[in-house]
Fold these 2 entries.
Entry 1:
Amino acid sequence: MWPPKGNHMGLPLQRKIMEQIIFYILAAATVIATVFSITERHAVHAIVYLVTSFFALAVIFYLLGAPLVAVFEVIIYAGAIMVLFMFVIMMLDLGHPEKVGTPGIRDWWPALVLAGVVFAAIVTIVAAATGSPAAGQAIGVREFALVLFQRYGVAIEIISMQLLFALVGALYLGRRQGKGEKP
Amino acid sequence: MIVPLLHVLILAGILFVLGLVCVLVWRANIIMMLIGIEIMLNAAMLAFVGGANRWGAADGQVFALMIIAMTSAEVSLALALVVYLHRRKKTVNADEFNTMSG
């Protein structure tokens, strides 16, 4: 808890405090960018806010000792998936906020009820919690790769087949329709 | 671990709720629903990575990698469906897609 009492990972205390401050700043940046993203009516602006949020989250992953996941977050999420969204939005010309209807109160209340339930659960957990940061450790690329390819080899094969199926499905859905031909 | 696991889980919970609110509020707009699903999957990844750091096991990071691969497959298929539906009905409003005739 704040202020940190011990020196868990053998880090100098000053560096640990600095990493904690960076974590909380990045957490605030992530949450604020996500809030802007989901309340934005212009789809392109929403995507840009989401990319900001993903960059902050990637640095949080790095601070949590997962450099490989941080790199994949930037390359695949912010680099590939968001660009795919942007491509579809621009291809279909959806960047017109005046054509988008504003959600009314009928759309809001189920979301607010569910959000209230989850926030009540979080508050209950926080009220019951005690303790200080445990001694976690960073995981290097070598250990990550060993676990990935020794223990989860079958999962890698399944994921590769899943990506292949997604490719075939997207090709089938995206092809031009011929003359009178049913898709 | 630089911060308690609880704080990481609280951040993941807040992000998950924001994604859920996005999906439930923008029920009429397919693109915003997909964005909400992205936010929720990111929150799940954050919880996995925090757990991997707390217990010093690489399994959580492996599952985060699986989530990334699964998300890219899901998004490519979903956006192909959006393009296909937009070609047929000229809209991305989910309420318009209410017929099953091929």
Entry 2:
Amino acid sequence: MSEQKRFQPSNRVLVVGGGMGGIRAALDLAETGRDVVLVDKGFAIGGLMTQLDRTFPTNNCDLCTLSPHLSASGRKLHIQLMAMTKLCGLDGEAGHFKATLTTAPRYIDLMKCTGCGECFRKFPESVRFIPGLDHRAPTCMRYPQGTPFAYSIIKDERTDFAGLAGVCPAGAILPDDAEKVQEIEIGSIILAPGAEVFNPQILDSYRYSRHPNVVTSLEYERILSASGPTKGDLVRPSDGKRPRKIAWIQCVGSRGIQEGSVPYCSSACCMFALKEAIVTRERFYEDVETTLFYMDMRTSGKDYELYLQRAINDYGIRLVRARPHSVESVMEAGTPAGDLLIRYLAQGEDSLKTENFDMVVLATGFRVSPEAKDLAAKIGVDLNEHGFARAGSFDPVATSRPGIYVCGMFESPKDIPDTMVQASAAAAAAAKDLTPLRVVAQAREELPPEREVAGEVPRIGVFVCDCGLNIGGVVNVEEIAASAASLPQVVVAETIGHGCSRESLEHIQATIWSKRLNRVVVGACSPRTHEGLFQEAVRRAGLNKYLVEIANLRDQDTWVHRDLPSAAAAKAKDLMRMAVASVRLARPLADQTLPMNKDVLVVGGGIAGMTASLRLADLGYKVHLVERLKELGGVAKQMRRTLEGEDVRAFVDDLIKRTEGHDRIKVWKQAMVVDHSGMAGMFRTGLQVGPQMFYREIRHGITILATGALPHRPDEYYWGRHRAVRTQLELEAFLEDHSEDVQVWDKVVMIQCVGSRVPENPNCSRVCCQAAVKNALKILEINPKAQIVVLYRDMRTPGFEEDYYRQAREKGVIFAAYNPEARPVVEPEGGKVAVRFTDPILGRELTVSADCLALSTGMIADEESTEDLGMIFHLPRTPDGYFLEDHIKLRPIDLPIPGFFVAGTAHAPKTIRETIAQAQAAAGRAQTFLARDSINLGAAVARVYGELCAACLICVRSCPFGVPFINEEGYSEIDPSKCHGCGVCASECPAKAIQLRQYEDDHIMAKIDGLMEGIR
Amino acid sequence: MENFEPVILAFCCHYCAYTAADMAGSMRLRYPPNVKIIRVPCSGKVDAIHIMKSLEKGADGVYVAGCLEGDCHFKNGNGRATHRVEYLKKLLDEIGIGGERVEMFAMSAGMGERFAQTATDFTEKIRQLGPNPVKAAPQNQRAAG
Amino acid sequence: MITAERKPIEELIQSVKPYRSILLAGCNECVTVCAAGGRKEVGVLASALKMHFLKAGKPFEIQEITLERQCDPEYVEQLASNLDQVDAVLSMACGCGVQEVARRFHNKPVFPALNTKFMGASERQGVWSERCQGCGDCVLGYTGGICPVARCSKQLFNGPCGGSSNGKCEVDPNVDCAWQLIWDRLKALGMTERYEENLPAKDWRPAGGAGPRRIIREDMAL
């Protein structure tokens, strides 16, 4: 065994860029047992997201969701992390690349630096630390939980190196450190260099560089952030006063034609500006007025429209459709007073208005950095006209050079969930170029032996997380810790800042050792998301992982009782008392494991299902693909071309051919899922197949749901009743098949948002704006004389779709906004239809006789199918019938039940490009499960105390899975490897002879007692 | 009695109601802080004894929140819980505590709004009912004596 | 098993009302199995009674215990140490258990918490029905394994009465006619000739007609 080399040089992946995308891709690869070299030019990984205060649409703080990923990145044995390193050259081809890496000197030995900060205290000018709004650059630890957790030194600032080296207690300072160049062998590359935030200095009229109260949205995030320069206090830079009136200006530097602007849309700015405004209102409510000046509100992601509605209705955020040209200083007695003046012409109004604001936030978009462009040139990756890596719709993460993949902002401007999706897709694609993994000897982290705690008197350590302002901003965490300190057997109770940061976890571990703790309580966020992290932490400190209990102080207390801080504090104390009472009784438990079934079930044979199936089958897994219709292809079969002009039909036909011809894919057509049981790694699903409805049982380890959505069929505007009225999908086919009819059209009207963004279907269908633009351009190609009017609410053409929207306008397509209160009215007029609408610029009613009326009807969830499958698989859905993912921001592909993944429009409306990326990503995420040889069932299994058992059979009869039986000794026995852990037997047992581990009766009683103690 | 703040325990299934409660948090919905949640793997795990003891120890109201009908991760744990709660309602009526102090609710993981609404409505109902007589009686006596 | 069900709570309250503290004793035998008097029911009833008296403002304490069996003196003896501290015992055993506790602790009032019903079997989860009346002279061998004593409302020994219709009993249409069952079973066994044989008049002395019954195993009861 020892001869076998685990680390295969050319069988690893180089990930360039340590932001969210790079980290996700590296983690996905590491979880499948692949080796990864993760390089970042910065001093610590984390990217842009670490500087944000919170992210939409959960308004969660980022550090708490990101830092577990970061510390995971730091510790994964398969990941070699190289900060301050660039990729400088590349030879060879996919599967056998030779990459040249250059590492800048840090002057600090990472192995020795403990991050104590002694050097920074003594020589602050030459040691890099937190920046915030301070323009001093370069910087190192951009936020307090940096990975690697080490400082770095700016050599230019320092002549007395010996003196500096002398202050380091760890002897980690290396005065003679120099640039290192090395060549490594790799199989494939993932480019995730991210993007830069546009610097609005060049747009002089916004006074960004001249007025301190004009800030970019990223700077505003830093002001709101608990780890920022004002520690989360909202004050304006000029005079430190709390602003009362803040304006956001959208599209600064994006969607523009003036010098310094870029023509594309930066995609994420509408949502982040809304988020900043909501967070501001949430914290300061009536005290701060928030106004957004926008061109189109582009909230087309999953449930983003609901977020927009909440922003308007629940938070009172004022939206003004206008693009202010400039920001002026308000003068008082001849000097600037700090306030700012905006002149604007709002849509629907005829005169220019002026309004004063205390602060102006510029929603600046994204650019590819010159360094990233340079890198692309060096390694031979084509860029598009905007400088982003060129990738096609049908393989959205593949660059022009085989073996090199791209994810995140470098592909196109996008938000975090889309970046996460592409990262997993890129990881799956990159794995394809490596030789199949045969060496299974997985590296294991060396853990200290578990300490025997049975018989010891409980010594409980209590740690209260402030979670930035999420907890600490509502209740006084010191007070919560102090109250827990008074409870019996609590040895230590303290606050720990961000509990999930690497620093805090290490502190908890150190405290466990130093105080000989044998139980731990963490007051933090939800155990649903963070229990595993804290369990691992206590395990690394030599305790069984079930000796920690988490009190949900954030999601179930401070987030929901912000308006009642003293009641929230009292509840926090109650929750802590309950947790302490329960952890006192915690017992060390062992996890159950079972061998993993590596077959895959994919439900839905559209583009998403076929793409995911092929990816996994190509990697060697057997795939069962279930389609309820007679043919594969799904809704895409009705489409002809993408917005960019690619041939959808040829692509789908080829996909079908490859899927049906693949020897590891079994396609089940006319098949319905009828039953399901088991858990990840050992699922069983029953199908009824073919017209005869034969029953087949499939055993599989994971399940991918790709059941798609339905084109909406409207019952308004004479659709289906007048031949001039078509949906965009029908129009697309008509344009290809009947161009001679199109040549004689005089006028065409398109109505957007038919059946979307309405009370019955509140979300945006995402694809209709680009479909309208696509069809409008096609009509003009056939018949340049046609007059086209598009009646819209917001034109949502994010990213490079904006180019086509601009083209359409340039070619004379008229885009006229309508109000949902004054929807267009359609009347038949012989072979034509008359469309009456209010022109927003003329402000009066117009009527157009249209030869063709195209309705942008969008998509609706396939309720019938998601409802059935949701029931059979026990998966939750959103109120509008799409599958609900595990975490809308960071786990957009994983469903809440382990072993289930979602791809395509079963998740939310999306384009073909996005669908393919998500399908590839689902295959990537699936692989992280399939690479394991065993599945962990956890420790929550039922245990029978035989001496109490009356052999009454009540458990035998009540178990939903038929597990208990009466054994030879005459009492009930439950096989822990078959137990699903529901606890029904335990609660039914009339003799109280069964206990469900982790949820024993005495634990629950202790929680009840713990609560009541404080109340009595 | 106007300052009566009921103590309410909610036994929430990990797969639905507990997640819905977290969702209510993500959505920054508001509900009364009176509700304290105990997480269980399935509403079918909630033992009659746990509900009874909660009330006996002074809770003013107890509810069990499980998955929607037919959605139980473990087939029918939520159905069992519903029947158990019905049984206890009768018993509680008989001893004069009032069966309306316990309730069974169903929701799915995505229903943050329903979680908050349920918590608000139930708290309001218990507030109307007044303190658990178990807790109130000795106090009244003390006041009288 | 011996089946039982809990008495109405009001009756239980009346019986224990005069006392300040009681011992609530369950039994881990038949009444556990029929979900009437095991550990769980003890817990639920204790809670209910405590709440009732707390609400009424009456000081009242309950100790809970569940014995392996209340009908064996060795197990009952385990109550001895608890009994000093209580004024009365409320037993959740069948009538046998209640009496055994009362016999052992002659100076403590003992009250039944259950109504003992019958000797029966589980029809399915949560449903028990009568199968045997302990007549002391079993005829099941003649009747295809179905007891006409316990399961025929009229205890007929030679075929059904005129009230059997569609296989159901005229006394309670939810109850199967025992003789219909006997006939079906004999037919299935190919033993319909048994039906023709007249059973002689039953001797009811072993059924208790000659006073309380005992069993003595001479070999064991040395």
